[in-house]
Write a structure and sequence with these properties.
By secondary structure, the protein is an alpha+beta fold. The protein has four helices and seven strands, in the order βααβββαβαββ. The chain has one domain: Aminopeptidase (3-Layer(aba) Sandwich), CATH 3.40.630. The site of coenzyme A has 19 residues, from β4, α3 and α4.
Length: about 160
């Protein structure tokens, strides 16, 4: 998409990130939790996707633990969905982690979240396990996805 940029978030992005999180999830991370992620930069990373008319159109939080990338949350502004933003953001996050030495990636998703599951499957993730009644508000199973081969070579989305 024209003018799209993905980069690590700044503290000035926190309000917009927290607003997207609160709008997207029934059991959202609070602004304080997100702020800790942003500050605790050794393991945690927060990425934002910017558009010319919208400084934070999507975001993704994750941890890099040894050679594993753990995606914790991804959300796109509800008025910007189905335009490829999550795909572009995920590709950037995966490639950035791979360039830093990560070899594989994992995440969990609600069983009822078909949109997210299709997104992850299209990126090459595969279901490896089920955690029964993992989520609350409402209670629901988690599907555990893994992507076993991260590739650092693809170009960055904004370049
Ligand atoms: C899931 C989410 C991040 C997808 O963002 P997005 O920018 O709309 O995704 P993309 O446009 O990159 O879609 C990529 C593919 O995912 C699938 N997909 C995305 N949204 C879908 C939907 N509502 N229904 C069915 N498939 C969907 C499609 O296969 C899509 O490709 P297509 O549009 O060419 O058919 C977004 O819907 C969102 O923010 N949801 C609320 C938060 C959430 O559930 N996050 C994931 C938690 S694990």
């Amino acid at each position: 998409m024209e003018g799209m940029v993905v980069e690590r978030a700044w503290e000035s992005d926190l309000d917009a990130v927290a607003a997207l999180e609160a709008d997207a999830f029934t059991n959202p991370w609070t602004r304080d939790m997100l702020e800790r992620e942003l500050r605790q930069s050794e393991v945690a990373r927060v990425y934002v996707l910017r558009l010319p008319a919208q400084p934070v159109a999507a975001f993704c939080t994750c941890w890099v633990i040894y050679d594993e990338l753990h995606i914790n949350t991804i959300a796109v502004d509800r008025n910007r969905r189905r335009q490829g933003l999550a795909t572009a953001l995920m590709r950037y996050v995966l490639e950035d982690a791979a360039r830093g030495g990560a070899a594989r990636a994992t995440l969990e998703v609600r069983r009822s979240n078909d949109a997210a599951q299709r997104l992850y499957e299209r990126l090459g993730f595969k279901i490896s396990a089920v955690r029964h009644r993992y989520y609350t508000h409402p209670e629901e199973d988690a599907l555990i996805f893994w992507l076993d081969r991260l590739e650092p070579s693809a170009p960055r989305p904004e370049s």
